[in-house]
Amino acid sequence: MFFTFSDILSNLFDLKGCVFKCPTSFHLLRIWFHSCFQKHTQEYGKIFKSHFGPQFVVSIADRDMVAQVLRAEGRAPQRANMESWQEYRDLRGRATGLISAEGEQWLKMRSVLRQKILKPKDVAVYSEGVNEVISDLIKRIHTLRSQEDDGETVTNVNNLFFKYSMEGVATILYECRLGCLENNVPQQTVEYIEALELMFSMFKTTMYAGAIPKWLRPLIPKPWREFCRSWDGLFKFSQIHVDNKLKAIQSQLDQGEEVNGGLLTYLLVSKELTLEEIYANMTEMLLAGVDTTSFTLSWATYLLAKHPEIQQRVHEEIVNKLGKDQVPLAHDVPKLPLIRAVLKETLRLYPVLPGNGRVTQKDLIVGGYLIPKGTQLALCHYTTSYSEENFSMANEFRPERWLRKDNLDRVDNFGSIPFGYGIRSCIGKRIAELEIHLALIQLVHIDIYCFPLLHIIKKAFPTAATFFVIYKTPFNLNIEIRLCNQTSKIWKLFIVT
Ligand code: HEM
């Protein structure tokens, strides 16, 4: 089914107007692959245009041009055409959430949500909840090991981190536990994971759902049908958990009790968003917050495994700054610049999303070209992340490059913007960082749990959204990551291929 790379290239325009033939919708999918951006940049330069079916896209792979575009944003930037998401919501009478909303509607929701989760101090209150999930993750690792023939090996660590991320983000969003890390995962949670898997495994199909013209649906019904089915599952799950919380709040109020809680409680009590908007935002945030986080955690452990000397330094930093037995909280993370640098460097090398989108809201001149209002832009941060102009020895894992004070604290390094930038950037960034930092600290510092040997076997990285990361990854390798304290009592991550 897939088109070859040269197919894609042969379907591109360059900005000087050299016209190739019009491609089919499959091509946009391929264009979003990380390496495609790089190859296109090599071939066409730092700014080039392409066609995806009827859609016209201008790709920008230059740090300063990306900065120029993002700095020129208005008050309600548009990321991409979300017609198919909107259509599903209209069909089912659902509201839009942050990802799918536009204009004033988006602005209203963003201004409510940003007050609660956009700053490190806002999410710090969730540290203890996240630590409970980490403690379950560690227990789960032991259970899985004990079930293996060798009593030591845990297979499919990606799946384990997926469950951890889902449990962690749900603890924050729904203020409840889902049971993802239990031996018997509750049926509701299993169904949700299936809906999520459907969304991702059918990702290509569901993307086609948006790209295939409506009149073709009777002939090719599957993509749109699957698209609706997976959204139904995702909305249903969120609704159950939001309604549970609503009932709990109501019963507290009925008994004259004071109502306290986190994000969801605030949203339900303050009524700044309608109930439908709350369902939609919880659904979209959970969708956006699981595999992104788990995937990054997998890559971070992989990179630490590949670089034992860095792992050793991370471990020493933790022991020196936090002591041996302390379970870290959010306020401990700033004391550990190296662990923060590890995450930044992981996201530079494996940024989950290879690029970001913006629809221009006014005419712009970028790189000497006039880009008319309403043009879809692809901002290729994977390419800029690997550019030697922006990062020396760009292919190498060098967390220390982020350690210079001016680097770690800079938000305007447009060479690597894995969470996007500006008013429409990732609203879950601080949640993701909290979950990853705290989990990494405990995984590297795991000798406090005093287990003799732990193997985590990683068969192949990609699952779910790994659709985006197939290139430049050890996709075809069998990688075994071991967490081991055999000789030194320090747990180490090894790779055995
Ligand atoms: C490592 C983890 C994550 C990465 C790399 C990531 C990356 C991104 C990126 C690149 C964007 C687009 C930003 C832009 O257009 O400028 C985005 C948007 C978004 N992300 Fe994340 N994300 C992560 C985790 C999360 C989590 C944990 C949540 C929810 C709890 C979340 C919720 C969202 C939402 C709702 C949006 C849309 C924001 C809007 O349009 O206003 N993300 N994310």
As for the number of domains, it is 2
Radius of gyration: 23 Å
Residue-averaged pLDDT, rounded?
Answer: 78
Task: Enumerate how many helices there are, as a single number.
Answer: 20
Distance between the termini: 31 Å
Counting DSSP E segments of at least 2 residues, the number of strands comes to 10
Question: Strand pairing plus helix content: what structural class?
Answer: alpha+beta
Order of neighbouring strands in the sheet with most strands: 1-2-7-4
Based on CA inertia axes, which overall geometry fits?
A: globular
Catalogue the unreliable spans.
1-32, 447-497
**CATH third-tier fold name of the largest domain:** Cytochrome p450
Percent strand equals 5-15%
What string gives the helices and strands in order? HHHEEHHHHHEHHHHHHHHHEEEEHHHEEE
Helix content: 40-55%
CATH class of the largest domain: Mainly Alpha
CATH superfamily of the largest domain: Cytochrome P450
Ligand names: protoporphyrin IX containing FE
Biggest β-sheet strands, sense, barrel: 4 strands, mixed
Known CATH architecture of the largest domain: Orthogonal Bundle
Give a description of the structure:
The chain is of the alpha+beta class. It folds into two domains: 131 residues, Uridine Diphospho-n-acetylenolpyruvylglucosamine Reductase, domain 2 (2-Layer Sandwich); 324 residues, Cytochrome P450 (Cytochrome p450, Orthogonal Bundle). Helices cover 50% and strands 9% of the residues. The protein contains 20 helices and ten strands. The strands form three sheets. The chain has a four-stranded mixed beta sheet with strand order 1-2-7-4. A four-stranded mixed beta sheet has the order 3-8-9-10. Strands 5-6 form a two-stranded antiparallel ribbon. Helix 8 packs across helix 20. The protein is globular and about 60 Å long. The two termini are 31 Å apart. The N terminus and C terminus are likely disordered. The chain binds protoporphyrin IX containing FE (HEM). The site of protoporphyrin IX containing FE (HEM) has 26 residues, from helix 14, helix 15 and helix 20.
